[in-house]
Amino acid sequence: MKVVELARKHSFNADDFEKWLKNSGYQVKFGFTGSTIDDSINTDDLAAGFKKYLADESERRAQEQEKLKSEREAAQQAERDQKMAAEKAENEKKQAMASMLITSGFNFDGYSISKYSGYISGDSAVSIDRPSHGWLGGVNKDVGEDLLAGLAHIRRKALEELKEAAYALGCNAVIGVDFDYLTLDPETATSSGGTLYLPFLFAVTANGNAVIIEKN
User: 10 Å Cβ neighbour count for 196?
Assistant: First the structure.
């Protein structure tokens, strides 16, 4: 019997059916008019076997899809959990940083120091362009105003760095805070042998001692 006729009779895909016959060990003969199977073979058994194969394959694919879905959902849940944990840690850090006490002195009223964790520092810097001269010789840039604005900004950044360092040590306060300032007037030689004056650089370092304080 021709394979294509048997496939048509049971509404099978002829190519898939023929491939299954070969893989199942059935002798399939090839001719000019198409492949055939021996008439002695029970075609109902063949059809039943192929239907079972199709059902098994369908079940296997369904299980694979379910497994992939479960793995994908587990990965998405793990990603959500990781994101939530990171957000929680970030919020806890923000709260701790906001409530962290700092002082230029060495104690806090109503608190006692339970642990000293050592000397820490925080740094920040800003560059300011040099003043330029106009056509009539006047300076068209207020360096002093820029400097004051820059210093206010880098002091805040240095204090933030100082708090970050204290937080990293598990501390909730900083004592003995002071500032060190550094001014640089950088210059470099040009290819023509002249001097190129670079922007002014102002740096500040906030210093202190990280401690753990407890209410009395």
Answer: 11
150, 157, 161, 184, 211 from 125: Cα distances, Å: 8, 9, 12, 11, 26
Q: What is the pTM of this model?
A: 0.61
Pairing outcome for strands 28-31 and 34-37: antiparallel
pLDDT in tens, the chain (216 residues): 788 888 888 999 988 988 888 888 887 787 666 788 877 788 888 889 989 999 999 999 999 999 999 999 999 999 999 999 999 999 999 999 999 999 999 999 999 999 999 999 999 998 877 766 544 444 445 666 777 888 888 999 999 999 999 999 999 999 999 999 988 887 777 777 777 778 888 899 999 999 999 999
Determine if residue 137 is left, alpha or beta; phi over 0 gives left, psi from -120 to 50 gives alpha, anything else beta: left
Show the DSSP H helices in the chain as ranges.
3-9, 14-23, 43-99, 143-168
Q: Which of 161, 156, 159, 206 is nearest to 180 (CA)?
A: 206
Domain boundaries, the chain: 1-97, 100-215
For domain 100-215, is the CATH number 3.30.110.70? yes
CA distance 12 to 9: 8
Query: Could you give the CA distance from residue 89 to residue 112 in angstroms, rounded to a whole number?
Result: 27
Q: Label the pairing between strands 187-189 and 195-197.
A: antiparallel
Helix axes 43-99, 14-23, angle to 10 degrees: 100
